[in-house]
Amino acid sequence: MADGVLQLVCECKHDPWGKQGKDSLAGRLWSHMPGAGELDASETYSEVLSFAKALPLQIHPDKGLAEHLHAVDPKKFGDTNHKPEIAIALSRFESFVGFKPLHQIAELMRLKPLEQFMPTREDFDDGALRQLCETLLSLSPDTVSETITKLQDTPMPQSGDHQHIPSLLDRLNKQYSKFDNGNLVATLLMNYMVVEPGEAVCVPADSIHAYLSGDIIECMARSDNVLNTGFCPRPDRDDVTLFAEALTFKPHSPRDSLLPSKKSAIGLKGRSIEYGPPFSEFNVLGVTLSPTETEKHRVLQSPSILVVTQGSGKMNVGDGTAHDIGEGDVYFAARDAELEMSTKTGLTLYRAYATF
Ligand SMILES: [Zn+2]
To answer: Of 125, 141, 183, 344, which alpha carbon lies 20 to 30 A from 148's?
Structure first.
């Protein structure tokens, strides 16, 4: 396969936050894998990601912390690498990503049920926000529940983007109970973002995030390290102080978490768009072809992985091989592989490639 492709047979995970049965795009894609079998209507299918409830509130440690954690506990933190990630929406995608602008958080914390948690520092800066985040994550289950009850009887400030907080609290309460600290951190401190299919969100290392609903293509650096502190059972949560210490505070607004996409010069027929995160370890190409359209990619100097998310067609490879491709197919393409895609009925695929 010097400059060819290799079809991969992948598993689908069954995390409790995944969508069930045929409702799960991840499940439907997986069901086309050779030997996959029927989808079970009562089972959750979670990765490529499809989720009906919030994923654990988390960060992925940067390289320095990852090396330290791996040295201390190699079983739990299996990698020494960081794990920045991007999420490209395949359906309407709701998420909590990064922290709100400081003045919006300060405004909320002046509400009666919350003022007791505000750090006693003169300026409300990122240091104070770190302290506030740690405080909220450390509250006892009863205090969390009482605070949420009081908040639901308190009118939200009219300015800022606070009007969605009561309905989000209702939803999260149903998903993880009124006792979960993640409910307060996500709704009060974090940006609530909704993006449409084709749009993407970027999560740098150490950046707080919790995906809420949708189907996405997720691409990340090679690491599986994660620190969780909410939206998961208490025994599964990592140390709150460690979590708070590791937090990064950039970006500080939803706009900065959006990952722009642009037409890619790799697509020689102009039908590929490119998602290029600023940490420049990998990019993802999105190819959408209408019936009878074709696309050809200029040869890449690095390996890539390709996932078909919709439709079917043909992929001709520079080594002379031709492959019928369809929904759910996953291919590894060697560096220097020359790929040309065509379709009679329409085709959407994503191709992630290393940019080193
Ligand atoms: Zn993550």
So the answer is: 125
Q: What is the mean pLDDT of the chain?
A: 93
Residue 334 sits in a domain of what CATH number? 2.60.120.10
Residues 203, 114 share a domain: yes
For 335, the domain range is 5-9+261-354
* Separation CA 58–CA 95 (nearest Å): 12
225: CA distance to ligand 1 center in Å? Answer: 9
Q: How confident is the model at residue 45 (pLDDT cuts 50, 70, 90)?
A: very high
Q: Which of 259, 292, 322 is the last residue of a domain?
A: 259
Q: Shortest CA distance to 55 belongs to which of 204, 184, 213?
A: 213
- Cα(283) to ligand 1 centroid in Å equals 17
Are 294 and 185 found together in one domain? no
pLDDT of 118 over the 70 cut: yes
- 133, pLDDT greater than 90: yes
Tokens representing 163 are 């009007």
For residue 151, tell me if it sits in a domain. Answer: yes
Ligand 1 centre to CA of 97 (Å) is 10
In a domain, 57, yes or no: yes
Which pLDDT score is estimated for 302? 94
Ligand 1 midpoint to CA 150 (Å) = 31
Which residue in 303, 305, 294 sits closest to 347, CA to CA? 294
CA of 253 to the centre of ligand 1 (A): 18
pLDDT, tens digit, 9 for 90 and up, residues 249-263: 887 888 889 999 999
